[in-house]
Write a structure and sequence with these properties.
This protein is an alpha+beta fold. The protein has 2 helices and 2 strands, in the order E-H-E-H.
Length: 69
């Protein structure tokens, strides 16, 4: 909240869905955390397609999407 990252709080934290492991309808409709996401600053940018990167030696992949990262 005071860190200047706008996606933080909107794109991270728990995401809820249906209880897929439920054995009854009542428990199926219970609000359940399906995944706990963590927003990272590199996610503001998308990866550049590798065939575009290969076209120029001056073009480099966006941070966070390179090999071994």
């Amino acid at each position: 909240e005071g860190d200047g990252i706008q996606g933080k709080g909107l794109l991270d934290g728990p995401f809820y869905g249906m209880n897929m492991d439920a054995t009854t309808l009542d428990s199926f409709y219970k609000r359940t955390i399906t995944v706990n996401r963590m927003f990272k600053p590199f996610q503001y940018l998308l990866p550049i397609p590798v065939n575009e990167v290969f076209k120029s030696k001056l073009l480099v992949q966006n941070p966070g999407y390179g090999a071994g990262e």
